[in-house]
């Protein structure tokens, strides 16, 4: 059976890409064709309109699409998670210098950002931050980061949508002062001499739910085979011994740049924070380990709470409607528990 699965170029697409390229899908009787999408909005629409059979997708966006909150409403389900964590906030070198936090610790960085953001807003020149989509953990993490510094993001900071592959160029061109994006684009910005990783998503919201495998809720007879293929690929990705091969796969197949060493470091949580070479070891920075793949309805409830907190959705039953879209039963049935 031939299937087309969409993805956005990010390190957390690894299980989907590995399933297609390394034979895991073929072993399940599937001919899995990869479709690299330029933005989350494009992927959302192509999935809703039936141009894609499945997708590597932002968890909140899958829920928003299914609930009719973003783009064409689609009857979707989430039978598998793909990762936890993976995001970071990167700011321009000029912004980091102006912030001048007392240390690299999250409270001090957030406080310094809050002071500067309020000052710039009072001058009529608010800072501009990029996020990958309004319905994303990135947007919610930016709000949590601002709150940690005593700042209400609304009214002080201009938030704009920039697709992940375009974030580094937008920073280079001065269109944004910083961005929250998934790996490896933060590290690529640092390696390009353009910015400084100011905060890790795993510090802002530990074990933050992220991307999911999203399928049509009905009529996807291929679901068990696809779940098994992506799960087996995910277990391969989780093995540290496969990290060099995975870095090569992402460089060649996902358009994540030629620097395999950078990709391998990023996958392992060995991060270089700035052009001076300040580094940090953060093993939880991007979790692709075996424990992340079974979808947890509690993650959908967390997304629903964030949506409600920033005024994107409301309703007493929002959390349970969101949780119902996560299908651990399908995962268990496909993988044997």
Describe this structure in words.
43% of the residues lie in helices and 20% in strands. Helix 1 (14-21) packs across helix 11, helix 1 (14-21) packs across helix 12 and helix 11 crosses helix 16 (328-335). A five-stranded mixed sheet has the order 2-1-3-11-4, with helices on both faces. A five-stranded mixed sheet has the order 8-7-9-6-10, with helices on both faces. A two-stranded antiparallel sheet has the order 5-14. The radius of gyration is 19 Å and the shape is globular. It has 337 residues and is an alpha/beta fold. The chain folds into two domains: 2-85 and 209-271 and 282-335, 3-Layer(aba) Sandwich (D-Maltodextrin-Binding Protein, domain 2), CATH 3.40.190.10; 87-204, Periplasmic binding protein-like II (D-Maltodextrin-Binding Protein, domain 2, 3-Layer(aba) Sandwich), CATH 3.40.190. Strand 7, helix 7 (137-148) and strand 8 form a beta-alpha-beta unit. The longest helix has 17 residues, at 106-122. It starts with a strand and ends with a helix. It has 16 helices and 14 strands. The protein has helices spanning 14-21, 24-27, 40-48, 59-66, 93-99, 106-122, 137-148, 167-172, 185-191, 201-204, 223-238, 243-253, 260-268, 297-309, 318-323, 328-335, and strands spanning 2-7, 31-36, 54-58, 76-81, 84-85, 87-92, 127-131, 157-161, 178-182, 195-200, 211-216, 270-272, 279-281, 286-287. This is NitT/TauT family transport system ATP-binding protein. GO terms for molecular function: ATP binding. Its main location: membrane.
List the helices and strands and how they pair.
Blueprint: E1 2-7, H1 14-21, H2 24-27, E2 31-36, H3 40-48, E3 54-58, H4 59-66, E4 76-81, E5 84-85, E6 87-92, H5 93-99, H6 106-122, E7 127-131, H7 137-148, E8 157-161, H8 167-172, E9 178-182, H9 185-191, E10 195-200, H10 201-204, E11 211-216, H11 223-238, H12 243-253, H13 260-268, E12 270-272, E13 279-281, E14 286-287, H14 297-309, H15 318-323, H16 328-335
């Amino acid at each position: 059976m031939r299937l087309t699965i969409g993805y956005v170029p990010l390190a957390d697409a690894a299980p989907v890409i590995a399933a297609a390229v390394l034979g895991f899908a073929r072993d399940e009787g599937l001919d899995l064709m990869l479709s690299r999408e330029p933005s989350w909005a494009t992927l959302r629409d192509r999935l809703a309109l039936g141009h894609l059979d499945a997708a590597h997708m932002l968890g909140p966006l899958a829920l928003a699409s299914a609930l009719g909150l973003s783009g064409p409403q689609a009857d979707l389900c989430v039978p598998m998670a793909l990762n936890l964590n993976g995001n970071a906030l990167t700011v321009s070198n000029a912004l980091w210098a102006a912030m001048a936090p007392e240390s690299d610790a999250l409270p001090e960085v957030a406080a310094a950002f809050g002071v500067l953001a309020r000052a710039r807003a009072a001058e009529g020149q608010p800072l501009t931050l990029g996020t990958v989509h309004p319905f994303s953990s990135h947007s919610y993490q930016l709000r949590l980061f601002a709150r940690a510094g005593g700042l209400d993001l609304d009214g002080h900071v201009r938030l704009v949508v920039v697709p992940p592959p375009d974030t580094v160029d937008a920073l280079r061109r001065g269109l944004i002062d910083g961005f929250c994006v998934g790996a490896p684009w933060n590290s690529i910005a640092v390696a390009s001499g353009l910015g400084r990783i100011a905060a890790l998503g795993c510090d802002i919201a530990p074990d933050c739910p992220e991307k999911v495998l999203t399928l049509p809720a009905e009529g996807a007879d291929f679901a068990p085979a696809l779940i098994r293929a992506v799960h087996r690929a995910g277990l391969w990705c989780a093995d540290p011994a496969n990290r060099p091969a995975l870095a090569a796969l992402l460089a060649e197949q996902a358009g994540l740049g030629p620097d395999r060493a950078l990709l391998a470091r990023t996958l392992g949580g060995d991060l270089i924070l700035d052009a001076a070479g300040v580094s940090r070891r953060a093993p939880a920075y991007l979790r692709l380990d075996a424990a992340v793949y079974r979808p947890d309805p509690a993650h959908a409830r967390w997304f629903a709470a964030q949506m409600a907190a920033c005024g994107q959705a409301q309703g007493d039953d929002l959390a349970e409607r969101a949780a119902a879209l996560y299908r651990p039963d399908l995962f268990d049935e496909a993988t044997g528990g």
